Amino acid sequence: MFFQKLRSGDFTVARFAQFAPYGDPYGILQPLSTPSPGNWAGYSNPRFDDLLRQSNLATDAAARGRLLAEAERVLMADYPMVTLYHQVTRRLISPKVHGWVDTPRGTTPTRFLSHR
Predict the structure, then answer these.
(1) Hey, where are the domains in the chain?
(2) CATH assignment, 2-85
(3) In terms of C-beta density within 10 A (0-12 exposed, 13-18 middle, 19 or more buried), how is residue 87 classed?
(4) DSSP assignment, residue 114?
(5) C-alpha–C-alpha distance, residues 69 and 55, integer Å
(6) Which of 39, 51, 71, 95 matches a 20 to 30 Å C-alpha distance to 57?
(7) Is 31 helix (H, G, I), strand (E, B) or coil?
(8) pLDDT tens series, the chain, 116 aa
(9) Phi/psi at 45 (5° precision)
(10) At what angle do helices 46-57 and 61-78 cross, to 10 degrees?
(11) Other CB atoms within 10 Å distance of the CB of residue 115
């Protein structure tokens, strides 16, 4: 029922967690673009969408970073959502464990782990 209301825009305020699927600012920004099906807030700003498109065409990493930073500034000036908290996780991994890779969602495939 909750996701039905999100999808249809039938809410005034909703709590929702968003995680980047990969370590890049685009992964957080893209779901708020106008055509994104995950754009629960219904946010739409042509300048924001254009900056995201330009960032995908940029071949220079520094230029791409500047475009994404500008997209973030545009987004925050419009304030379509309120960030309540940032989830933080700490893990204590023994140096004897090999193959550990920390991931954005906190799931590490155990099939790659080994122990000395």
Answers:
(1) 2-85
(2) 3.10.105.10
(3) exposed
(4) E
(5) 10
(6) 39
(7) helix
(8) 887 887 778 888 887 777 777 778 999 899 999 999 888 888 999 999 999 999 999 999 999 999 999 999 999 999 888 777 777 777 888 899 998 887 766 777 788 888 87
(9) -145, 115
(10) 170
(11) 8
* Amino acid code (one letter) for 56: N
Tokens encoding 66 = 């500047």
For residue 107, what are the CA distances in angstroms to 18, 94, 102, 103? 15, 17, 8, 6
The token duo for 30 is 């893209």
Task: Give backbone dihedrals phi and psi of 54, rounded to 5 degrees, phi first.
Answer: -60, -40
The number of beta carbons lying within 10 Å of the beta carbon of residue 43 is: 18
Q: How many CB atoms within 10 Å of residue 26?
A: 18
Neighbours of 67 (CB within 10 A): 22
Let me know how long the chain is.
Answer: 116
User: How far is the C-alpha of 43 from the C-alpha of 32, rounded, in Å?
Assistant: 6
